[in-house]
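quick one
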Amino acid sequence: RHKFWETQPVGQFKDIGDSSLPEGPIELPTPLSEVKQEPYNLPDNYEWVTCDINPEEMCDEVYNLLTFNYVEDDENMFRFNYSKEFLRWALQPPGYFRSWHIGVRVKSSKKMVAFITGIPARIRVRDEVVHMAEINFLCVHKKLRTKRLAPVMIKEVTRRVHLENMWQAAYTAGIVLPTPIATCQYWHRSLNPKKLIDVGFSRLGARMTMSRTIKLYKLPESTITPGFRKMEIHDVPAVTRLIRNYLSHFVVSPDFDENDVEHWLLPKEDVIDSYLVESPETHEVTDFCSFYTLPSTILGHQSYSILKAAYSFYNVSTVTPLLQLMNDALIVAKQKDYDVFNALDVMQNETFLRELKFGPGDGKLHYYLYNYRMQHALKPSELGLVLL
Ligand code: YNC
Ligand code: MG
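structure w/ tetradec-13-ynoic acid - COA thioester:
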C-alpha cells in the first residue's frame, strides 16, 4: 500500500493497538560517521540546490514554485499563497540550518521544480523534550507528479537532519499516511461573508438571505477587553512565562524559550499578529492571542484573485475568558480586512468555535511524528502544537 512509508521508522498501520510496542523512538541514533555523506541520487536531468531565501532572486524562485504548485483544496478552487516575508519567517527561526532548505532544479534550464524544508524545534512529548525537525513545504511541480520524487526529497532532508544529530521530526499533511498521532479539523469564521460566498468559499445557509448573513457575522468596531493591546518586544519574558505554563498542559507541544517567543510571536506585519491583555490595575500580562497571515489564490474567478485568511496560532487565557479573547482577535482581524479567520480544533479551541460562529471545514489535517511511536492517537484537545 505504502511502498515508501512501509520502509520508514514511523508507526505502521499493522501495529495499531499493539500494546507491547513502547512509546518513544523507533530506531536508535547511528554514529554520525555512519550517516550517508553524499546526497541521494536524483533522476539524470535534475540537481540539488541548497536555498538561501534571503536574496530576493532565490526567494522569488521558491515563492513562484509554491504559488503555482503548492497545496490546493479538494475542489481546486484555492491554493495557498505564502508570502516571501512569511517564508523567511517560517524558515529562519533561532538556530535554523540553511542546509535544510532544499530545492531541486532542472540542470539545463535551472528551473526550480521541487522543494522541501526542515527547521529545528524542541518538541515536548509528555515529560520528554526531543530535538526535532519540523518538515514543511514539500512541493513537486505539477508536471513532475507521481514519479516518486517525493520519497527522494524526504530521504534527502532526513539525511541532512541526521547530519545535525537529530533523529525525530514532526509534520502535518492533509492526506492519511502511516500513522497520524492526531487528526484535526479546520474551522472557519466568516469576516467578509459576501466575498466568501461570491468566490465559492462558503454558501448561503438554508433560509438565509445575504443581508441576514452579513448581520449574523457582524462584529463590533473595536475590541472589548480593557488592556488589550499589541505585543511589544519588552513583553517577551512575560509572554514566555504565560505560554510555557499553558503549553505544559498538553501531551505534545513546542518547548518555547524567550528567543523562540521573540521569533515566533513578536508581531511582523502581514506575517504574524500577537495581542495580549495587560491588566490596567496590576500591569500583569494575563492573556495572549495570535494569528498568522496566509492568503490563498482564488483560482479562476472574475472579480477576486486573493482570499485574505488569518490562522489562529497560540492563545492563552488566564483571566479574560478565552471566548472573549478570541472575539477580540476576530475584531482586530476584521479591522485589518481579513476575509476569514481559521482555527484548528487543537488545544482548547473547541470551547469557542461554535459560539463564535466558526463553521467546520471539509478535509482534515493529520499530525505525524517521524521515528517516535505513540501508543494511542491523541485527541485534538491534547495537542498543543500548530505548524505553519
Ligand atoms: C506528503 N504530503 O504517500 P507511499 S505537507 C508525506 N507527506 O509514498 P510521488 C507524502 N508523504 O505511500 P507526488 C505526501 N504526499 O507509496 C505524498 N507522499 O509510501 C508520499 N502536492 O511520491 C506518498 N504538499 O513523488 C507516496 O508523489 C509517495 O509526485 C509518492 O509528490 C507528492 O509539506 C507531493 O500537498 C506532496 O507537491 C510533493 O503531490 C505533491 O504526488 C505536491 O510519486 C501539492 O510520497 C503540495 C502538497 C505537501 C504538504 C508537507 C509535510 C511533508 C512531510 C514529509 C515527510 C517528512 C518526514 C520526516 C523527515 C525528517 C526525518 C528526520 C529525522
Ligand atoms: Mg514525483
